[in-house]
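seq:
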Amino acid sequence: MTAQSRGHWFVGMALAWLCGVALQLQEPALHGAVTYSAAVCVGGLGLALRGASRRTLAIALIGLLGMAMLGFGASGARAVLRAAQLLPASLEGQDIVVDGVVASLPQQGAAGTRFRFEVETALRQGESITLPPLLALGWYRGQHEDAAATQPRAELRAGQRWRFTLRLRQPHGSVNPHGFDYELY
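struct:
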């Protein structure tokens, strides 16, 4: 195989991967993890068949289809894993008692303090609930509608264990297309 044909093959594989990812992104809803795992397995088999066989057009197309299936399955599996970490809509705006550890250096700003919090336990009305393992929290000074009556604690430090009563909501990105997107982060 010449360097030029290897380059064409690499570009073809990259485009096949992108087509698989694009196909998955066009789906109106996520399938189950089993569907995406099967797509990864079928894609891997297609690539293995392409690598083990002699070079024919049909085998090359099977390899490209395998790479597209890998892109589809990998992006779908990642989306399923990410969706499992989202805050359930039924918990938004509810008072939740959370125990855990401050997982990042608190960042002081004009509006208050922002930090990451690693959840160990969470209770709603005395019942144990499941939350995402890492929360992005903001402790506002009083300018914000959800502000607590007290000022942010100056002694808040990374590694400290705290118990908070929180009202959580889903992260949301900025309307500005060039601004920082907290939802994606």
